[in-house]
Design goal:
The chain has 473 residues and is an alpha/beta fold. The protein contains 19 helices and 15 strands.
Amino acid sequence: VELRAIGGAKQVIADILAKKFAQWPAVGSSLASAVQWIGGRGVSNTSSPSSLTSERFPLGYFLVAQKPQASSTATVGISSRVARSEKAKHVIVYRNDLLPMSETFVQQQFIALNEWRGTLAGMRRASPSINLTELNIRVFPLNALPLIGGVCTRVMKFLSLKPILVERWLAGLQAHLVHVHFGVDAVALWPAARRLQIPMLVTLHGYDITIASAWWQAGLGGKRHRNYHQTLIEMSRDRRVHFVAVSRSIRNRAIELGIAEDKVSVLHIGIDIEAFIPGPVPLSMRPSRILFVGRLVEKKGCDVLIRAVHRLMPMVPDVEVVIVGDGPLRGELARLAAKLSVPVYFAGSMARDEVKQQLDRARVFCLPSIVAENGDAEGFGLVLLEAQACGVPVVTSAQGGASEGVIDGVTGLSFPEKDVATLAKHLIRLLTDDQCIARMSDAAPRFVAEHFDVRTCTRALEGLYDELVRVSG
């Protein structure tokens, strides 16, 4: 079925093959014949809706297997080059990799869509990935092939076919708008979206806007991303493109980079407050346990937590730390904990329900984020909201999260990044003062429910979808 998908582009591919192998006509002719044979076993051009058999898409759909069901109404839309359905507003929610374990926020926001019909699309499945079996997902078909997907990817790159096939794939999904998570993914998808003239909303989460331009230009993010920030700025000048920042600090950074103020809106993603509720055991009856959840990378500042706990151990001798998450710094952090004799349990990556179980056993949650050497910084830190929704007070230095996601002194405590002494002082207070922690445990869930319910936040997002489609028309 997936091989049949190239039927719509068979002549384009055959022509490119002939040019690529001009010096070896026998090779080029053989490969072109193979493509024509495969394409001939697919569908004909007449399988495509009339709007896609125009001069823009004379070869029809690329994605045969994902052809939408026929509608009794005429197709309409922002651009005549991309067919739309009148029955429902349709958004493609895009991420290159569907979806890493740490990106449940993309999944939850997608599930919360109400006024818009969503398709979760990406280039490939992440490994390991979140369970997406009950969602409407689409994976770029050649990458979905279990045995030769990697080979197909290399062939597409060699022949410069990917932009052509991605464009046809997006066209076949027939959406009014594409919502891309992370600027890096948006830059990768931009050539196809621009050619289709489909509006694009880009959510900026953190590293995709905070890492210094010099780091990208040096090729440390990959050669293809050397001009990443410049491309992002150029994209922002298109009237069909708008950006969402997950916090005010992220918006400020985007503006500093050169994106116009009126092109960046702040919209919080929120969390599922029905999944994160206070646990059955009061905090005063829980052990002196500090919980950390996050990737074990520099910007999370996990070493700051370990050093702070070492400092407070004489005052709280029964303290213990549980670290949920994995990453390149795990070995280094384990060695630091052993050197300082800090009782740390590295639990590894966990699914959302397992994180909830850990929150129900913790007395304090800590996210001691810092700005990494390359500029990478926390965008918000949604886990802060999950902890507070469960009635667990938080201590954090996370940019965005510390100023927007916590009421300092009411639902948690904030501190300057890398300030080990202040972090230790805050932790001692929450580990030893039952009255203080009870007040915070009571206030925190109300704060999150009022301001960060994912359903309320997603309604605001859908309003932005509507506005972007309107101004793009």
